[in-house]
Amino acid sequence: RNIVERTNDSRLRVCWDCGHSNVFGELTPSEWIQRLAGVTPYAHWNDNFGDRDSELPLGEGNIDWGEIVQLSSQLSEPQLVVLEVGLIDNVKRSLDFLSQNGLLMAG
């Protein structure tokens, strides 16, 4: 956020990767969403257990997707989400997880 704000260039934004923040970050994925609000028009979503960037389908790791979806839906700018989960079967499993848990965002 500081880098984006210091450059003062409307073309520079952040693509936030939920899986990376769960593995490599000192903040929780939810804290990242809150801190980067307004500068993250894109997000990569995938799951893991915080041990490595395994790009699991959503719901198959330890990320709290209910909280992620809730916080993402409250952002002033809508986020484009890329399901970065590899095979098409993993995309389907991720969409099924979101649907079954009432987490698909309208928009």
Any overview of this molecule?
39% of the residues lie in helices and 10% in strands. The chain is of the alpha/beta class and 107 residues long. The chain has a three-stranded parallel sheet with strand order 1-2-3. Strand 2, helix 4 (65-73) and strand 3 form a beta-alpha-beta unit. The radius of gyration is 14 Å and the shape is globular.
Structure at a glance:
With 107 residues, the protein is α/β, with parallel strands linked by helices.
List the helices and strands and how they pair.
Blueprint: H1 2-7, E1 15-17, H2 18-24, H3 29-35, E2 42-45, H4 65-73, E3 80-83, H5 88-100
Parallel strand pairs: 1-2, 2-3
Annotation, overall tally of beta strands: 3
Task: Supply the helix-strand structural class.
Answer: alpha/beta
Tell me the span between the first and last alpha carbons: 25 Å
Give the fraction of residues assigned to helices.
25-40%
Strand content: 5-15%
Q: What is the CA-atom radius of gyration, in angstroms?
A: 14 Å
Which stretches are low in confidence, meaning pLDDT under 50 for 5 or more residues running?
none
List the strand order in the largest sheet: 1-2-3
Number of helices: 5
Any idea what the shape is?
globular
Largest sheet: 3 strands, parallel
How do the helices and strands follow one another from N- to C-terminus? HEHHEHEH
Give average pLDDT, whole number. Answer: 93
